């Protein structure tokens, strides 16, 4: 039987798994794999400028295409630079398969050059991780990795590849099937439990759907919308679930949680049945756990058994894939008597509409409103901070729009590489990233990747000269002591006791141009529309649009720290 090296088998495996894009950064322990990839055609190799950005790019590629994102990095620092991205993907249930180089087996454990126990380091933030110790196990392990990454609750898998194992000759066959003892993801819905839940739904006077990221991950938006419209039950979403139903649908109330809409938070507080699908009930949406949805019985559908009743005790647990469960629901649901309940929700919306105070100067709402007007179809990618919450509040997410972000981990630096990965996976769809001036600088080197890959992404920077979200907390709860949040601070401000500051650095426009990208600075409302129109003309070049934002712009509503969903700060 023909024998081939482990390096050749890896390339063969990638092709059989349908991989068409690989995000990779080379090194001594992966140079032979890089050489094999060089000899093949059919898999596009993307060379980013940093491994953390690389894994975010693969992450966004996976989120927006439904495929598994694939990474290849070298051992030691190459591998450890994946850690933040693996944790990001783990929290947000993103299917990744990450291959890390490793020193030869006889050097493992001897503090060899660029040797780390990356499997041990990442054990708590990956769905599965393993070092391949025997060449004959390589094909099986790769097959299992892709299966584990994409099934059940999706997540990142890490495969560590010792250099000598990959050089060794062995079987050329790649397995066709997977059979993992102890890993049998649930693929069915318990009809008895589901019917019990739907009976409760029919009897409830104030029923409410809570849709989380699981609805998006399972691509269940269309069938979920049908269920909602058939039952006439209102919907709130988590930030990760925004888009589970069009934000323009009259039955959509808004996001709930720390920066949720007043009507959405009040609906959760007053409902008598909370029918939740695909959410972990994390602290950002619950507030005080013992006062969350105090009047409601709770139904929880989730593919991950461990997520059910972990934070919030539920009355009816249903372990199932969101789309499978919602599809079954569609067969049984009937219209519910929600007229009075919907009237109450409309009154809450009128009493406290989700809006921003018009301060007479250009603000985030003007920018997001222009994005809504100019881009009927788009993928929006945010970084992390005030701008992220504002986009999650005000961006229209419809059938033609997708919103992605680092939700569970809150990873600054996700925005630009996320936009790159999304555009590579969706070349015909406009991709717009929104970052703060702080987050943008965490992976700004990826402008080189975007330029060289000829990606016409539009990168919006909300520049308020501060780390805005932390500054907001400092303003509200720390007596306006803006410690470590002023991005102009340095030697000059220390020398002058905070009386003098230099010009903002960097000059984002000149920096963009130095990379070969287009740069536009916007300081007034009447410049916004023209800036986006100009950016759309660049069909092979990324565009940075820097919006100069007042540092006093705040994100409201906001739940008070340690408060309930009803403890909302509406404005200051």
TrEMBL record:
Name of the protein this chain belongs to: Acetolactate synthase
Source domain of life: Bacteria
Reported cofactor(s): thiamine diphosphate; Mg(2+)
Thiamine pyrophosphate enzyme central domain boundaries: 194-328
Pathway info: Amino-acid biosynthesis; L-isoleucine biosynthesis; L-isoleucine from 2-oxobutanoate: step 1/4; Amino-acid biosynthesis; L-valine biosynthesis; L-valine from pyruvate: step 1/4
E.C. number(s) listed in UniProt: 2.2.1.6
Keywords carried by this UniProt record: Amino-acid biosynthesis, Branched-chain amino acid biosynthesis, Magnesium, Metal-binding, Thiamine pyrophosphate, Transferase
UniProt xrefs under InterPro entries: Acetolactate_synth_lsu, AHAS_TPP, DHS-like_NAD/FAD-binding_dom, THDP-binding, Thiamin_PyroP_enz_cen_dom, Thiamin_PyroP_enz_TPP-bd_dom, TPP-bd_CS, TPP_enz
């Amino acid at each position: 039987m023909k024998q081939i090296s482990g390096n050749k088998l890896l390339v063969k495996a990638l092709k059989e798994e349908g991989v068409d894009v690989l995000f990779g950064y080379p090194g001594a322990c992966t140079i032979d794999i890089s050489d094999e990839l060089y000899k093949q055609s059919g898999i596009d190799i993307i060379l980013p400028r940093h491994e953390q950005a690389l894994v975010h790019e693969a992450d966004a590629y996976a989120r927006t295409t439904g495929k598994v994102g694939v990474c290849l990095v070298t051992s030691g620092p190459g591998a450890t630079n994946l850690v933040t991205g693996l944790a990001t993907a783990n929290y947000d249930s993103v299917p990744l398969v990450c291959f890390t180089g490793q020193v030869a087996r006889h050097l493992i454990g001897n503090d060899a050059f660029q040797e780390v126990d990356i499997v041990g380091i990442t054990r708590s933030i990956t769905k599965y991780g393993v070092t391949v110790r025997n060449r004959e196990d390589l094909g099986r392990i790769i097959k299992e990795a892709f299966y584990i990454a994409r099934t059940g609750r999706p997540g990142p898998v890490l495969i560590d590849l010792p250099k000598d194992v990959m050089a060794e000759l062995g079987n050329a066959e790649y397995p066709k099937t997977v059979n993992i003892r102890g890993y049998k993801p649930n693929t069915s819905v318990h009809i008895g439990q589901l019917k019990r839940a739907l009976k409760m739904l029919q009897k409830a006077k104030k029923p409410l759907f809570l849709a989380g990221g699981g609805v998006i991950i399972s691509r269940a938006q269309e069938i979920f919308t049908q269920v909602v419209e058939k039952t006439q039950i209102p919907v709130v979403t988590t930030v990760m679930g925004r888009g589970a139903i069009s934000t323009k649908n009259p039955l959509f109330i808004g996001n709930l949680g720390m920066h949720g809409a007043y009507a959405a938070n009040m609906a959760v507080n007053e409902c008598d049945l909370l029918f939740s699908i695909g959410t972990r009930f994390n602290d950002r949406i619950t507030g005080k756990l013992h006062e969350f949805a105090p009047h409601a019985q709770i139904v929880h559908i989730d593919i991950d058994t461990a997520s059910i009743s972990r934070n919030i005790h539920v009355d009816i647990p249903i372990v199932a894939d969101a789309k499978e469960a919602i599809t079954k629901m569609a067969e049984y649901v009937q219209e519910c008597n929600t007229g009075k309940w919907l009237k109450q929700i409309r009154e809450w919306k009128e009493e406290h509409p989700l809006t921003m105070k018009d301060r007479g100067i250009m603000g985030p709402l003007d920018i997001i409103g222009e994005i809504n007007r100019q881009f009927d179809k788009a993928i929006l990618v945010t970084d992390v901070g005030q701008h992220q919450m504002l986009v999650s509040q005000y961006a229209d997410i419809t059938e033609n729009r997708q919103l992605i972000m680092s939700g569970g981990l809150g990873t600054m630096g996700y925005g630009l590489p996320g936009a790159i990965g999304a555009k590579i996976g969706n070349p015909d769809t406009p991709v717009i990233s929104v970052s703060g001036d702080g987050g943008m600088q965490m992976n700004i080197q990826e402008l080189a990747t975007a330029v060289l890959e000829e990606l016409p992404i539009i990168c919006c920077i909300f520049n308020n000269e501060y780390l805005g979200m932390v500054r907001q907390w400092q303003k509200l709860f720390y007596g306006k002591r803006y410690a470590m949040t002023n991005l102009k601070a340095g030697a000059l401000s220390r020398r002058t006791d905070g009386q003098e500051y230099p010009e903002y650095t960097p000059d984002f426009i000149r920096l963009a141009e130095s990379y070969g990208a287009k740069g536009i600075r916007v300081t007034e409302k009447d410049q916004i529309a023209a800036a986006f129109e100009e950016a759309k003309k660049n069909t092979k070049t990324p565009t940075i649009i820097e919006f100069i934002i007042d540092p006093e712009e705040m994100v409201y509503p906001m739940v008070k720290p340690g408060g309930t969903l009803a403890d909302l700060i509406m404005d200051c």
